Amino acid sequence: MSSEQNRFVVEAKPWQTEPAFELRDETSGSRAIVALNEGANCVAWSVATSKGQVVEILETPPSPEDLRERRFRAGIPVLWPFPGRVRNARYQFQGQEHQLPRTDKGRVHHIHGIVNTMPWRVISRGSGAERAKLGLNIGPFDLTEEYHEGFPFDFSLSLTFTLKERQLIIDTQVHNSSKKRQSMPFGY
Q: Parallel, antiparallel, or unpaired: how do β-strands 20-25 and 31-35 relate?
């Protein structure tokens, strides 16, 4: 196997104390780290310039504890299905009212969705001469009971992280798994 075939690597590698995957380009020096149990947050992304200088693209939290305290200030948090504030942690959809956990600092509103604190499952990974890829998934049964009651829809949310030279591409797919053809609200 030539070194060109091993250029890109996807490796299970802890981020401090947390389960994570690192995607690397061994030739350019680019890398990204995705913390699985921290809501699939891409906690680090760096690229190397043509002169070999490494540039940190993201603010990397100093520790998992710091990320939990300031979840939306570092990395790339996944803000789904509510990328903003849900006033009083209640919303109506198709005539039904739903109560979400109160997650803001004052415990009044719900902010930034239901998947950013949950562990995600690895569904695929691969690397080769052109790219490194990591596929992750989360569904309703991966949520806590409180979150699932507040968002009682059948869904599958998948992210695919692709590192290709100095690019990090994040593809998102949402699948409504309802057998009753029930509509599902969401934003990203």
A: antiparallel
DSSP 112: S
Cα separation of 124 and 132, whole Å? 11
Model confidence over 6-53: pLDDT tens digits? 899 999 999 999 999 999 999 989 999 999 999 999 999 999 888 888
Q: Is 112 left (phi over 0), alpha (psi -120 to 50) or beta?
A: left
State how far the Cα of 157 lies from the Cα of 188, in Å rounded to an integer: 11
Q: Cα-atom radius of gyration of the chain, to the nearest Å?
A: 18
Strands 96-99 and 90-93 come out as antiparallel
Question: Is 39 within 8 Å of 78 (Cβ atoms)?
Answer: yes
The share of the chain scoring above pLDDT 70, in percent, equals 97
From 113, 119, 124, select the one nearest 142 (Cα to Cα).
119
Q: How many other C-beta atoms can be found within 10 angstroms of the C-beta atom of residue 143?
A: 18
pTM higher than 0.85, yes or no? yes
Q: Which segments of the chain are extended strands (E)?
A: 8-12, 20-25, 31-35, 41-48, 54-56, 85-86, 90-93, 96-99, 110-111, 121-127, 132-138, 155-164, 167-176
